[in-house]
Structure formats: C-alpha cells, structure tokens
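Sample log: Pentapeptide repeat-containing protein.
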Amino acid sequence: MPKPRHATSAPTELDLVADCSRCFALCCVLLPYSRAAGFGADKAGGVPCHHLATDDRCSIHADLRERGWPGCVAFDCFGAGQQVAQVTYGGTSWRDHDDLGEMAAVLSVVRLLHEMLRYLAEVARRSPDPDAEAVRRRVLEVRDRTPVELLTFDLDALQEEVGDLLAAASARLRDAGAPDLSRADLAGHDLRERDLHDASLRGALLIAADLRGVRLGSADLLGADLRDADLRGADLASVLFLTRPQVATARGDRATVLPPDLPAPAHWA
C-alpha cells in the first residue's frame, strides 16, 4: 500500500466537502444504517446498500427523499470518503480490500478529524488564534497517518482539546451577556419571541422547534439537534459551527438566510 502523503497547507473548503467521484461509495458499504434513522431499511456495516450500482453510484440518488431515504440526503462525511479512498488506502476500493471492518473504523476516525478541521477552519476565518492553528496542523498530521496509526491514536484527548478551542472562539465572537442555553431541551418549543441573538445553543435539543423569523446573530449551534426545526424566514447568516447535516434535517424556505458556505438544501425550494 502506498505511503500516505502528509499535508503541508490548510485544506480548502472543497477538501472538507464530500466528493463522491473520488470515493468508492464507502459510506454506502462500510457504515451501518437503520430504517428508524431515515435510511429506508436496516443494513449492517460492511454490506453494500441494495441501491448501490456496480459503478459505485446510487441508483436512486435523484429522488432519495421521495423514496424514504432522507438520512442519505443529510449524511456528510466532510470529505473523509475521498481522503480514505485516495490517500489512506492509496486508491484501493472496498471491493479489493480484505478487512472492511478496519476500513469502516478508519472512515469513522477520519470523518471525525475532518469535522474538527471544518470547525477549526471556521475559527481561522472568523477569529484567528495561534493555538487553534497549531492544533489544526496537528489534526492534519494525524489525518494522514496509516490505518493502524489512525486506529490507535487517542482521539478523545484531541476532541477535548479542539472543543476547548471552539468554546474559546465562541466566547470571543458572541455577546458576553447572551443567553446560555447549552444542552437545553427546547424540542417542540415556540421560540419566536425568545431572545436567541448570540445565544449558546451548543448541544441543544431543537427538534421541531419553531424558529420562524428568528434572528440568531452569532449563536453557537455546535452539535445542536435541528431535526424538523422550522427555520422558515430565520436569519442564520452569522451563526457559529452550523453544518450541512444540521441544515439538511431542518425545515426552511427561500427566505431562510444561511451562512455563505452552506447552500440551501434542494428540498427547501
């Protein structure tokens, strides 16, 4: 297997977005999914999805939501798929690898690393910090290691370190007097009259919450559960740490304002 290359510069935004043309449908094969999570069926890890064609393309990609597969629409590997396929395994397909369990575990690790890189890239854009830059470079170095090295690395400690840096950036960017609703259970609540401008909504349960027309300012949405949250007409242009999977599970319309790097999901139209 070719020796993994080592990154020397920051990953571009494109590097942290899934590029299925450079992957071998790893998520459709290696990862498990369930009907309860919006995948239309139950599947064990290492088993190819029954909609996967021989060219590693999804045979129902054009109408996944309509066919009962919204989980696929919301899933994002943050570019880990092409990294694992083309760099970690040097262009080797899952079809030619004899340990799919290892490959699945590596994909999960790299996905977490790429998610960290995505957040650290946001810190670099909005509130540059030498400590965050140093950690970003370390994450890149770890990301480019061999499968065995990736699977034996202390990922928990790195996640904690990154989490502290994100919290510090959040504190710098938000109003110090803004509400702290971290991990609050706001599922189903009508939040249209709540002051959520610059609020900390880290890990908050916002399932089916009514946020129509709410202006969130630089609210911190790291890990917030936005499934079926009503974002119609809401202004999220400056929120922190919002990801495509979060947006894809929410409800919105053409009046919803998202951060510049997040396109509106097709089904919102």
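Observation: The chain has two domains: 20-173, 176-268.
Observation: The domain at 176-268 is CATH 2.160.20.80 (Pectate Lyase C-like).
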